[in-house]
Amino acid sequence: MKRPFIIDCDTGTDDAIALMAAFGCPEINVRAITSVNGNVKEEYTSANNLNLTEYLGIDVEVARGATLPFYPRGDYYGPTHGKTGLGDVVIPDAKETSFSRDMAPEVIHRIAEEENGELELLVIGPMTNIAIAISLYPQLKQQIKHIWFMGGAVAGGNVSSTAEFNIWVDPTSAKMVTESGIPMTMVGLDVTTKAVLGREDEQELRAFGSKASVLSADILEYMFKRCKDGGEDALMHDALALAAAVIPECLTCKEAFLDVECRGEYTAGHTVTDIVGRSLGKAPNASVAVELHLDVFRKWLLECIKRCGQA
Ligand code: RIB
Ligand code: CA
Questions:
Q1: I need a surface site. Which of 128, 220, 269, 277 has the fewest CB within 10 A?
Q2: Which stretch of 9-18, 40-49, 169-178, 272-281 has the lowest confidence by average pLDDT?
Q3: Quick check: is 237 catalytic?
């Protein structure tokens, strides 16, 4: 029986690769893609999701979502994903498909009802849509089976020395979600900064020659240029959160108390993770990834991308 998922994303270069991997994952049934503001404005993240699914021939509900975090942080759209979110990669505009009639929180609610406690969420952008959904429909706390999210860090950050981007954009939402009681797994920078693809992966994908594998190779090519110019490397942040759900053997996770700092001039967006369970004396509420087995992950990711759109 395939596991039903909704993927909430701020597509984004690495989000797009994670989506293609998800569509090539035999274990899961992607019920919907919900868009959120994050890497770029929601008008771009949602357009990327619709264009990508139509380009690949993937029949899935695509919904628009939150355009602002709960506590707007001004203009934080950096150069990492370019103006449109996909760097210099261009996908044809969707012509045949359109957005869901429902916004993200409604889609999450409707599908959670339909899936009767089996729905899992892959959350790979700021958590605004999830927090709004839980606020509108508190029963989601019992209906969502598991949240697998890319965000946070046990140590360090990429927006600052203390905060990772997805959590930093909307710490209020992230705090609401981590306090919800929904079982969750945090895939943070501690492991995603090691989830790097290289030239040989790009060449393998380009040689495979499918729409998804060539598009992924083009995105990797953009990431390599970005890295050469001093930007982020070809880090598969979001695909690793999917891997945590599907091939947990690629990660070592530890139970921990997890909370989010929402205040503090220099610490807002920091994920407090008490892995040792001593210093804060609070019960664990999350599983936190602390080690990555890179070769297992890379092999799996390329296989999923190659299966994408090949049904
Ligand atoms: O910090 C990395 C995260 O921020 C990834 O999800 C990336 O897509 C950006 O959203
Ligand atoms: Ca993302």
A1: 277
A2: 272-281
A3: yes
| 81 CA distance to ligand 2 middle (Å) | 10
Ligand nearest 39 Cα, by number? 1
| DSSP string for residues in the chain | -PEEEEEEE---HHHHHHHHHHHT-TTEEEEEEEE-SSSS-HHHHHHHHHHHHHHHT---EEE---SS-SS-------STTTTTSSTT---PPPSS----SS-HHHHHHHHHHHHTT-EEEEE-S-SHHHHHHHHH-TTHHHHEEEEEEE---SS--SSSSS--HHHHH-HHHHHHHHTS---EEEE-HHHHTT-B--HHHHHHHHHH--HHHHHHHHHHHHHHHHHHTTS--SB-HHHHHHHHHH-GGGEEEEEEEEEE----TTTTT-EEEESSSSSS-----EEEEEEE-HHHHHHHHHHHHHHTT--
pLDDT tens digits, 19-78: 999 999 999 999 999 999 999 999 999 999 999 999 999 999 999 999 999 988 888 998
Confirm or reject: Cβ of 173 under 6 Å from ligand 1. no
Question: Which residue, judged by its Cα, is nearest atom 1 of ligand 1?
Answer: 165
Residues in the chain: 311
Q: Quick: pLDDT tens for 95-134.
A: 999 999 999 999 999 999 999 999 999 999 999 999 999 9
Among 190, 237, 270, 271, which is best to mutate for testing ligand 1, by the most ligand atoms less than 8 A from CB? 237
Active site residue: 109, 146, 237, 270, which one? Answer: 237
Indicate whether 141 pLDDT > 90: yes
Q: What pLDDT is recorded for position 71?
A: 87
C-beta 126 within 6 A of ligand 1: no
Q: Which of 128, 143, 133 is nearest to 181 (CA)?
A: 143
